[in-house]
Amino acid sequence: MPPPPPWLSVFPFCDSRLVRTQQTTFQIDIASDIVSSMVVGSLKLWTDLVVEGFQKSLRVGKFLCLLHAIDTYVCTPVLPYGPSMLPTLNSTGDLVLVERVSTWLGKVGRGDMVLLRSSEDPRKTLIKRIVGVEGDTVTYLVDPKYSDASRTCVVPWGNVWVQGDYIYNSRDSRTFGAVSYGLVEGKLFWRIWPLKSFGSLHGKAKEDS
Amino acid sequence: MNLFGNAVPWRSIAKEALERTAIVTRFLCLLHVTNTYICTPTLVYGPSMLPTLNLTGDVLLAERVSHRLGKVRPGDVVLVRSPVDPRKSLTKRVVAMGGDKVTFVVDPRNSDRVRTITVPRGHVWIQGDNIYASRDSRQFGAVPYGLVEGKILCRVWPLDGFGLLHH
């Protein structure tokens, strides 16, 4: 048997079985071993990549979970649109913060602007102001655009009476009646945008200047 | 003897306590997320769903996926936040969805009077299976769909009633 070539020592996985009498089979065996080691090497690389990808996405997933938990239980940003809360909130382009702690503690009352799920279309959420709570007697203008007619009613237990600040163009409790307190999802407390109105949203409805 | 001397390893105790607390907190978070978005056990009691549910308490499994996808149908037993007391949850059967006409006996204990009402859009009509002792939509009206919190899947306790609820 001819002695093994000196470069064979570079490939430590090659053992003496590769050394054959015939040069061609020797070369084919070397080549197949290189390929198989490359496949094994790249397989390991692959699994490393997959494991790292999984770990990174787990971290991202945990961060998103935290974000979602804060969004649902502490505070969430909302983009309201529509004319029903003029002049307090603009028709479009406002960014407000809604906090969820007060509703959970039951500390939402008259004069608060709240985020509530629509009782007519459960996929929509509305922003209105609470005008009366359970037990209150509410007197309201039924259709102020066209008539002066007003009606009075008592807010049932467990419900709230909501109205938009701009009663001429607002679909609220005057149309769909008192709303169950369970549909109130949060209380508006801070406006972020536009910057000239940055600040707290507490207190009475903004008067038209 | 110095209380904060080297004899007591305060640092490692605090660190271990923090780690254990973190593990417990993560587990509670996972439990909470599962209960809110996937499936939760509830204890229900009262006479309003006899004979389907027992008077003295059953543990039911309520799933919280269907109602978000809008897959609540008449005949389903659902978990609903009470429209008259937001701190309570009710378990009743959905009889009609928004837009349907529902015919019901107003007060079966005292009279045979029947009424027919169209359920408003975005609302559901719920009734207890035991109409003689149930406070439901016949008293407080149609319930907004937004108050539906889950659909009852099956009974877990007592064991002799284990399995899907029968009509």
Automatic annotation (TrEMBL), chain A:
InterPro entries: LexA/Signal_pep-like_sf, Mito_IMP1_subunit, Pept_S26A_signal_pept_1, Peptidase_S26. The keyword Hydrolase applies. One of its GO terms (cellular component) is mitochondrial inner membrane peptidase complex. It is found in: Mitochondrion inner membrane. One of its GO terms (biological process) is signal peptide processing. The active site is at 84, 128. The keyword Membrane applies. Keywords: Hydrolase, Membrane, Mitochondrion, Mitochondrion inner membrane. NCBIfam families: sigpep_I_bact (TIGR02227). Catalyzes the removal of transit peptides required for the targeting of proteins from the mitochondrial matrix, across the inner membrane, into the inter-membrane space. Belongs to the peptidase S26 family. IMP1 subfamily. This is Mitochondrial inner membrane protease subunit 1-like isoform X2. It comes from Rhodamnia argentea.
Automatic annotation (TrEMBL), chain B:
It comes from the Eukaryota. One of its GO terms (molecular function) is serine-type endopeptidase activity. Keywords: Hydrolase, Membrane, Mitochondrion, Mitochondrion inner membrane, Protease. The active site is at residues 48, 92. It is found in: Mitochondrion inner membrane. GO terms for biological process: protein processing involved in protein targeting to mitochondrion; signal peptide processing. One of its GO terms (cellular component) is mitochondrial inner membrane peptidase complex. Residues 24-104, 117-157 form the Peptidase S26 domain. InterPro entries: LexA/Signal_pep-like_sf, Mito_IMP1_subunit, Pept_S26A_signal_pept_1, Pept_S26A_signal_pept_1_Lys-AS, Peptidase_S26. Coiled coil: none annotated. PROSITE patterns: SPASE_I_2. Catalyzes the removal of transit peptides required for the targeting of proteins from the mitochondrial matrix, across the inner membrane, into the inter-membrane space. NCBIfam families: sigpep_I_bact (TIGR02227). Heterodimer of 2 subunits, IMP1A/B and IMP12. Belongs to the peptidase S26 family. IMP1 subfamily. This is Mitochondrial inner membrane protease subunit 1 isoform X2. It comes from Rhodamnia argentea.
